[in-house]
Every structure is written in structure tokens, then in C-alpha cells.
Amino acid sequence: MTRTLASIEDLSKEAHTFAQTLSPKEEGATLITLSGELGAGKTTFVQVLARALGVTEHITSPTFVLAKTYALTNQAFKELVHIDAYRLRGASELKGIGFAALCARPEVLLVLEWPECVEGGLPVADVALTLSMQEDQTRILSYD
After folding, report:
1. Structural domains in the chain, sorted by start
2. pTM of the full predicted structure?
């Protein structure tokens, strides 16, 4: 699916709609990857997704802490784990954040920015999203 998003408001609406389509798997965490250049709106997408799932805390990019976990209540998922792999230099660095253990938990929704930085260390994403900025300042959101 591909969408052209003319504004941050459009991006927010799309993230909110996307949140309604998510449900846990029987085995293992649900993995969503977010690719796109700096400033494309990856963290904004996660912020709106988290709000749609009931997170009231302020969501910031976990660039320096690598991962942030948010408890979810009254949702199919129990936790949202937001990972920013931008500073990681390969899949082996995922071990430091307990990635394998997170992947084994069906109640976890994993949202990972910059999957290209840890290629080879990820299971196949349940949804792989890509955001790209256009010259006219619109964004293209595509996912399978």
C-alpha cells in the first residue's frame, strides 16, 4: 500500500488508522520496521501510533538509549517497545537490548526505526513501513 501524505496531520491520521489494524500473533512479538531518511517522520509516526494505543507519556526518539518500553492498558498488546537502531553497527548489537527475548513475547509490539542498520539480525517484519520526503514536502508512506 502506498499513500501520499501532504502534511504532518495526514501522517498522524494514517498512523492512527494503522494502529487499529494491529493485533498480536500467537507466537512471538509483532515487528514493525520503519525506514526513511532523517526527518521523514518515523518518530512522528511512532508518537501517533503510541497515542492511538493509549500511551500518555511524551514519546521521544530512543536514539541514545536505543529502546524505550511503554506499558499498554486495555489493549491487545501489553507493551510497546520503540527501538532506534540508527547508532547500532550491526545485528550483534541488538543483543545488548535483549532483542531476542523481546521477539519471543507475543504481547509485545516492537517498532524499530532504521532496520537497515541491523540487517541480518531481524526476523521478517510483520509490517515494513517506508517513509520518504518528496521535493514538494509531501511524504510517501508505503508498506506491505
Report:
1. 2-143 (3.40.50.300)
2. 0.91
